[in-house]
Structures are given as structure tokens and as C-alpha cells.
Design goal:
Blueprint: E1 8-12, H1 16-27, E2 31-35, H2 39-58, H3 64-72, E3 74-77, H4 80-84, E4 89-92, H5 98-111, E5 117-120, H6 127-131, E6 140-144, E7 154-158, H7 165-177, E8 181-185, H8 194-210, H9 216-225, H10 232-239, H11 241-254, H12 263-270, H13 304-319, H14 326-337, H15 343-350, H16 352-366, H17 375-379
Parallel strand pairs: 1-2, 1-4, 2-3, 4-5, 5-6, 7-8
Antiparallel strand pairs: 6-7
Helix pairs in contact: 1-2, 8-13, 11-12, 13-15, 13-16
Bound molecules: acetoacetyl-coenzyme A.
The site of acetoacetyl-coenzyme A has 21 residues, from helix 2, helix 8, helix 10 and helix 14.
Length: about 400
């Protein structure tokens, strides 16, 4: 199958990611089947697609006519077999629980046409393991979108052990057709690029909170003043504390116990305070996005500390052979997080020795092995030398 042969895309799940991926596919001109387990989830997903398209009409990015056509291209289902029976490409965006993913993939394998590609939007899980639930592992691939899918450009395209090259290429080409920036990940490794690189910063944010060393607002205000589109705690609420919990669990099992979900996070998840989606998380979202008072910024918190942890983790991806090109890492981080520069671009400006020292100090202070600087970071030799950042950046 070639990308031109894809006519219909089925999306499993109508939640934060599912409805957004369905909308991205509609915007690219595809017929879309969106499936969830209950009508109320489907209704909510449908309403969110409509609201988002309304915004795009308001901004004149989409015409009223196009919007009507896109909505008529969208079918919704509860029955999984019905939803995929004539799909050419399926994207799964169900909760991050391996048994649930496997059940869904088994059902997809049984009902989708033989030629259909089955993609998972998992944030961290093994594509190889998900594919093992099917009889077509060469046609199973990772296709990881970022929240909100309509606005964030990055799509990580992940190769499981048995994913074929034509499946990788087709998924890459489909992401391009969807007006996204795809990055290939050749080795099925926890968290791929973006979530792996941000994971150590989540450990630090948890420690600051748990030890009362800073409030979320103090750090978020500081980071927003430094140019972040969202404060890091606000972003955790935005992606969902349940999602963060599952990601941390997965890393704890597969990478290091340092990632074990902290007590405060488990308490929030147990209380159903999941962030934006439930109206309460670290912040109160009942009246919309939290207003962060920039005057509360903790001025003695150095934003470079978060950069140091990200650069260090990025060098691990190179050392482990998960990603071959450091440029791809910068490209992924810029397009996944809506920031102006990637970790290696920033490291080039700050200096590798300074960042290595920061990691060393953080590892000692918090007794976290994941923070320890890698050989590459300590060597002080950049994996590549990016062009200097424009003056406006500073
Ligand atoms: N559809 C259409 N338009 C939308 C929209 C949507 N779903 N969501 C927001 N917008 C529009 C808003 O209406 C607004 O339009 P105007 O400028 O015309 O008013 C515009 O986008 C900007 O939105 P906001 O004013 O609300 O706020 P903002 O300027 O901060 O932008 C944001 C919002 C793009 C989300 C930005 O804050 C951002 O880039 N945040 C970081 C997001 C990020 O890092 N995502 C990755 C998370 S990690 C992940 O997803 C991986 C995983 O596996 C967990």
C-alpha cells in the first residue's frame, strides 16, 4: 500500500488524544471512523472536534464549507469491529495500560482489512509487545502525536522489532500528509524521544513539590518568564496526571526505579484529580487555564537546571543507539513541545561543562542516579554543532 491508497483512517478512543488525532486526519481530507466504549465519550470527543474546527474557521484557517465537509466525513462507533472493517490505517489512542492495548490490538487484527496498518499512539510502551497481540506484527508501528494534536507538529514514528520498512515509510508519509513533522525512531525504547528526555525533569519537579522546596506557581512563573509556552507543572496538568503516572510507572519498570511515581502523584490520581480533564489537578482548571502570577517567580531557580537534565538524557539516547542523529532530537523537542530551541542547541550556548556540573550536583543533592552526567556530557564534546540561535531568542 502507498500513502495515496489510504482513504479511511480509524481512531480508537475519543479522549484528549483520540479526538485530536481524528481531527488531524479530517483536516488532511480523510474519511474518519472514531470509536470509543461509551456514547458519552464519543459525544464529548465529537463536540471538541466541532469546537476546535469552529476556532479554525474563526481564524480563517478553514472555511465554513470545509468544516461541514469534514464533519460529514466523520463517523462514530462503539462497536470496534464495525469501526475498522473498511479502514486502511488505524491509530489506537486508548489508556496506557498494556493489557487494554493488547485486547484492542487483538480485536483490530481480527476485524481490520488484511492490508490495514495498525498504529499505536502510546507515549512510552513497547511497540514490539503491543504487536505481539496480532498476527501482523510487520504492519504494527508507533505513531505518537503530541497534545494538542491539532497544534503540535511532532509525530514520532516508532519501529517495533518486527515492523517492516514499508510500514515505517507509509506511516512517515502519512504524518507528512497530515502536515506534521515526523521523526523516525529505529529502536523500540521506553518513551522514544520526547517523553524519555523530559522524564528526569519530572523526577525533579516531583522532588521540589514533595520536599516543599518550591511551589508549582513559583516554578511555572519562572519558566514562563524564561519563554516557556506553559509552566512545567501546568503542562503536567494539561497532559493529565494519570498519563504522567502511567509513563512514570512504565519507566520505573523498564529504565530505573528513580522514575517510580511519587506519593503526591499517586494521591492525586487516586483522588481523581487528573488536571485539565477533571477540572482539578495541581491547579484548579474549573474556570479554564490557571492564571499564573509572574510576580511569584522563584528568581533563584535556574531554568538551565531543566535543560541540563534534558541534554543529559538526550546524550543517553545517542549512547544507546535509540536515535542516530542529534539533529533529530532537537527537531523532535522543538516540534513536540512548542519551544524555540532543542536541548543540543541550548547546550551549545550554555556550555557542556556547566551542564555536566549541574547534573553532578543534582544527582548528589537528591541522590538520583538518573541525574548523573553521561560520558558524552562529561567529555564536553558536543554530538553536533548547531547553528547559533538568533539574537531574538535571548
Ligand atoms: N484547536 C484549535 N485551536 C486551538 C486549540 C485546539 N485544540 N487549542 C488552542 N487553540 C488556539 C487558541 O484558541 C489560541 O488561538 P488565538 O491565538 O487565536 O487566541 C491559540 O491556539 C493559542 O492558545 P492559547 O492562547 O490558549 O494558549 P497558548 O498560546 O499558550 O497556546 C499551546 C496553547 C499551543 C497548547 C501552548 O501553550 C503550548 O505549546 N504548550 C505546550 C504544549 C506541549 O508541550 N505539548 C506536549 C505535551 S507532551 C505530550 O503530549 C506527549 C505525551 O505523550 C504525554
Amino acid at each position: 500500500m502507498k500513502v495515496e491508497d489510504i482513504k479511511k483512517i480509524a481512531v480508537m478512543g475519543a479522549g484528549d488524544m483520540g479526538h485530536g488525532i481524528a481531527e488531524v486526519a479530517l483536516l488532511a481530507g480523510y474519511k474518519v471512523a472514531m470509536r470509543d466504549i461509551e456514547q458519552r465519550f464519543i459525544d464529548k470527543g465529537f463536540a471538541r472536534i466541532k469546537d476546535s474546527l469552529d476556532k479554525l474557521v474563526e481564524k480563517k484557517k478553514v472555511t465554513e464549507e470545509d468544516k461541514t465537509k469534514m464533519l460529514s466525513n466523520l463517523q462514530t462507533f462503539i462497536d470496534i469491529a464495525e469501526s475498522v472493517k473498511d479502514a486502511d490505517f488505524v491509530v489506537e489512542a486508548v489508556p496506557e495500560i498494556m493489557d487494554v492495548k493488547k485486547q484492542v490490538f487483538q480485536a483490530l487484527d481480527a476485524a481490520a482489512p488484511k492490508h490495514a496498518i495498525l498504529a499505536s499512539n502510546t507515549s512510552t510502551m513497547s511497540i514490539t509487545e503491543i504487536a505481539s497481540a496480532t498476527k501482523r506484527p510487520s504492519q504494527v508501528v508507533g505513531m505518537h502525536f503530541f497534545n494538542p494534536p491539532v497544534l503540535m507538529k511532532l509525530v514520532e514514528v516508532i519501529k517495533g522489532k518486527k515492523t517492516s520498512d514499508p510500514t515505517m515509510q507509509l506511516t512517515y508519509d502519512l504524518a507528512l500528509k497530515m502536515n506534521k513533522v515526523p521523526v523516525r525512531i529505529e529502536k523500540d525504547s521506553p518513551g522514544f524521544i520526547y517523553n524519555r528526555i523530559t522524564a528526569p525533569t519530572h523526577i525533579l519537579l516531583g522532588l521540589l513539590l514533595e520536599r516543599g522546596l518550591a511551589t508549582p506557581e513559583e516554578i511555572d512563573a519562572r519558566m514562563k518568564k524564561a519563554g516557556a509556552p506553559m509552566g512545567p507543572y501546568e503542562l503536567l496538568d494539561y497532559i493529565g496526571l494519570d498519563v504522567l503516572y502511567h509513563i512514570s510507572r512504565n519507566f520505573s519498570d523498564r529504565l530505573s526505579r528513580d522514575h517510580e511515581p511519587p506519593k503526591w502523584l499517586k494521591a492525586k490520581v487516586d483522588a481523581g484529580e487528573l488536571g485539565k480533564k477533571t477540572g482539578k489537578g495541581i491547579y484548579d482548571w474549573s474556570k479554564g487555564r490557571p492564571e499564573i502570577d509572574l510576580s511569584k517567580a522563584k528568581e533563584d531557580f535556574d531554568p538551565n537546571v531543566l535543560t541540563a537534565l534534558q541534554v543529559n538524557e538526550a546524550t543517553k539516547l545517542l549512547e544507546e543507539g535509540v536515535v542516530k542523529s542529534p539533529e533529530d532530537i532537537d527537531k523532535a523537542m522543538v516540534n513536540g513541545g512548542g519551544v524555540a530551541a532543542g536541548p543540543f542547541q541550548l547546550a551549545n550556548e550554555i556550555g557542556y561543562d556547566k551542564l555536566a556540573k549541574m547534573c553532578e550536583e543534582l544527582a548528589k543533592k537528591f541522590n538520583v542516579k538518573v541525574f548523573e552526567p553521561t560520558k558524552t556530557l562529561k567529555s564536553g564534546r558536543p554530538p553536533y554543532v548547531p547553528p547559533p540561535l538568533p539574537k531574538e531568542f535571548f
